[in-house]
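fyi for ur records
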Amino acid sequence: MRKIIILTFISLFFSACEYKIEQKNDKQTTINDENSTKSNFGIVLHGGAGTILKENMSDSLEAAYKEVLEKAIITGHKILENGGTSLEAIAETIKIMEDSPLFNAGKGAVFTHHETNELDASVMVGNTKDAGAVSGVTHVKNPIELAIKVMTNSPHVMLSGAGAEQFASEQGIEMVDPSYFYTENRFKSLQRIKDSEKTQLDHNAKSAFTDPLIKDSKFGTVGAAALDKHGNLAAGTSTGGMTNKKWNRIGDAPIIGAGTYANNATCAVSSTGWGEFFIRAVVAHDISALMEYKGLSLKEAAREVIQKKVPSLGGDGGVIAIDKDGNMVAEFNTAGMYRASMNAQGELTIGIYKE
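which gave:
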């Protein structure tokens, strides 16, 4: 009898030990799963959408675009990989494109009708839904930096013109002479569009856009969206606007909800295209809203807005976006869009033309 009791006790003891080990393993698996989720991150960018055709692109120019796109996306990805925030990642990514004459932002900004450069930018973070934007600045080297300062160091969301530049000076933002933004190809593009306008029988603002040259003068905006290891989303957009723009025209790029939007519950979006239509369609927010209220996936929501809603109004362009789970899209209804992305596994994708 004593032997049976002893054997029963030993059996119960080992069973308890095995149960504790299983509990520990289950707990460790849960922790590992949580860490895996937290380590998920990614970044996606665009350099503008429009009539970008392979037959119109030289090999050297295509290589130049891809080089900058790759440099920009890798820079942002490294920040995320090292535990940096999504805001830091998109800021540095966008600055690289602003500093390149290839894109319609910063150094490569297009010219207004009066042969000046007026720059716009915006930024938004998804955890607090804080946002900042600037429009019509002419001396700010990197408008995306100023948009961030508006968000973090002012009680406002958007500043414009001389007031925005005064704030920039007070914040120690790098300022440059307007001549810094001059590029020969952008200036020649303005002259070609002005010449084309002269041939129009009707100089009405809307009819001018029937000319393909003028119609494509609005593209080239840059932007980025990212998810960091902390689970926070951010998006930013920067542009020189539309070639030959008049009357201090402002497009969608600095408009929160149209050109830029971020919400940790859904996604982060940056837009590029015909700004007037992107404002009317509230494109960036609409994608988020379709996800939040209708339960659409990021891909489904982006496709609905870019392939149906915007064209139905008469507009065109595209978006890049990333959702709270790290899924990324680059959706556009034009012939091409400069774009790149990198996920948590370090997989790099670069694209220019419609596939």
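The chain has a mean pLDDT of 88. thats all i got for now
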